[in-house]
Amino acid sequence: DKRAVDNSNIIATNNDACQCKLYAIERGYWNDPYLKILAGSIQQERRTPEISLGYYVRVHGVRYLIEKFIKLTNNDCQIINLGCGFDTTVFYLLDNENLRFKHFVDIDFEEITELKSNKIHRLPSLRNKLPMDNKSLKIPCGFHSSLYTILPADLRNTTQLDNQLKLLATNSIIDFTKPTLFLSECVLIYMSNEHSLNLLKYLSQTFSQCCLFLNFEQINMNDRFGEIMFENLKQRSCHLIGMESCQSLNSQCERYKNTNYTSSFCLTLNEYYKKYLNINEKRRIERIDGGLDEKELLEQLFEHYCFSWAYRDENNLGLNKITF
Ligand code: SAM
User: Fold this and answer.
1) CA pair distance 262, 314, nearest whole angstrom
2) Whole-angstrom distance, CA of residue 114 vs CA of residue 150
3) What is residue 222's predicted lDDT score, i.e. its pLDDT?
4) pLDDT tens column, 118-153
5) Which of 108, 115, 200, 243 maximizes ligand 1 atoms within 8 Å of its Cβ, making it the mutation to test the pocket?
6) What letter does residue 320 receive in the DSSP assignment?
7) Measured between alpha carbons, how far is 242 from 218 in angstroms, rounded to an integer?
8) Whose CA is nearest to atom 16 of ligand 1?
9) Segments of the chain with pLDDT less than 50
10) For 30, how many CA atoms within 13 A lie in the half-sphere containing its CB?
11) Rounded to two decimals, what is the model's pTM?
């Protein structure tokens, strides 16, 4: 079945993200005791400092904006992590008593959600973090507790996604009118532009009062360096079918404008790194692997990733304040 083969290539990208993150965590770029528990131990493959710095910035930037969102909503919010893989954000938040939320939902293909759910069920170090829900909702290939649900869905199929989210809404687990943050880290790039647009539109229509979509992904893939990145990914049989749609900062913002978001922003990792990252933190992480010989490679790499976000804020909660 061609479709299954295609999906398995996309699913394998989670393994790659986990391995790079585990490597950087072991080197001390940031702290995350949970990824190792979820994703197993690391393969002994050395990563360049540029790659580890890239992952650091990705995790750091996304967490920074999540925290701003939670604070702005006074903890009265939902977070939905699209194409979550083995991402551990929910455990990071649960460990931080200033960062509460009403519900956190992880979504991915069922091959991933089943593995993630089984691990959480089996491992007390994860399971004990999660207060159980007396509603005891059973989700096939997924997981449910009072603060956290794992849902299997193909994000290209908004009917399936809608059914899954309605299951939560009718059980009062999520609320379509509550402030909701959508996360997508290196996910849309694996979909066609049409599928991304459908997904973005479905979410802004369904959570129409107050939602923020936060995206991190590859960009500027049409120059020489981008072509090399693309070839590298292809060798690992990942086809970046969304690539043609996100070639520039502009096309990122266009995508939101065409799907009912009222404001949108986009910046490259270079811009973030140079303008917004704390100088002491920058010094610390640049020293971990003995310093960078020259910055050119880092700058080239960082020109090919971006943060972008967009929102609808019908109740004037102040989502315009969510920025670096
Ligand atoms: N977001 C996680 C992170 O940053 O660590 C995982 C990133 S990994 C590169 C991409 C993830 O998106 C994979 O887990 C993959 O299965 C998921 N994904 C891609 N397309 C998807 C789709 N159509 N439906 C559900 N999940 C999808």
Assistant:
1) 10
2) 9
3) 82
4) 999 999 999 999 998 877 789 999 999 999 999 999
5) 108
6) G
7) 10
8) 11
9) 1-3
10) 21
11) 0.96
pLDDT given for residue 1 in this prediction: 47
Measured between alpha carbons, how far is 125 from 138 in angstroms, rounded to an integer? 22
Give tens-digit pLDDT for 17-52.
999 999 999 999 999 999 999 998 777 788 899 999
Q: Enumerate the known binding-site residues.
A: 58, 83, 154-155, 185
pLDDT of residue 293: 80
Q: Where are the domains of the chain?
A: 2-321
**Burial zone of 292 (CB within 10 Å; 0-12 exposed, 13-18 middle, 19+ buried):** middle
Taking the centre of ligand 1 as the mean of its atom positions, its distance from the CA of residue 108, in whole angstroms, is 6
Question: What is d(CA 111, CA 189) in angstroms, rounded to the nearest whole number?
Answer: 19
Architecture field, domain 2-321: 3-Layer(aba) Sandwich (3.40)
Q: What is the ipTM of this complex?
A: 0.99
